[in-house]
Amino acid sequence: MSSGRETTGGPRWTQTWLGGARSAGAELGYPGERLGLPENGTGAVAGYGRRLVALFVDWGLCMVIAAAAARTLELAPQSRSLLTLGVFALQAVVLNATLGMTLGKRLCGIRVVRLDGRPVGPVWALVRTVLVLFVVPALFWDRDHRGLHDRAADTVVIGLS
């Protein structure tokens, strides 16, 4: 009768596919290595945590702006959610296109850059923002921590320090 454990001291077969390519012995390098970015410090790919905090800061600020606008314009409470989405989209497109970062990104020390070295610009900022608004594309990441929205716009989020 088998207890489900390997007697040879090797990993169980499920550990190789559940743990991903690294557990199977594949050396993938660090995030951003394929893009020519440093492993740590300024210019390295930003981690998930800082990106998520920046998103929450941006969304929270947009909620405050939308609530104030809804109260001032005497809009129905149901309109506030759509207004929040619109304010978020507008600030993301304008700030990423001009500065490469939103207020949340600035507070978290991260920035959006194009891989070819040019500014993000309004067209690619719009493409990136539309895909973020659909949510699902932003949930699928590659090994360089780039979501589908980053891949479509040929961008990467890097650390400022």
Automatic annotation (TrEMBL):
Record bears the keyword Membrane: yes
Organism annotation: Thermomonospora umbrina
Chief place of localization: membrane
Location within or outside the cell: Cell membrane
Membrane topology: Multi-pass membrane protein
Classification via Pfam families: RDD (PF06271)
Transmembrane segments: 52-70, 82-103, 123-141
Residues in RDD domain copies: 45-153
GO cellular component: plasma membrane
Protein name stated in the entry: RDD family protein
InterPro entries recorded: Pra-immunoreactive, RDD, UCP021697
Keywords tagged on the record: Cell membrane, Membrane, Transmembrane, Transmembrane helix
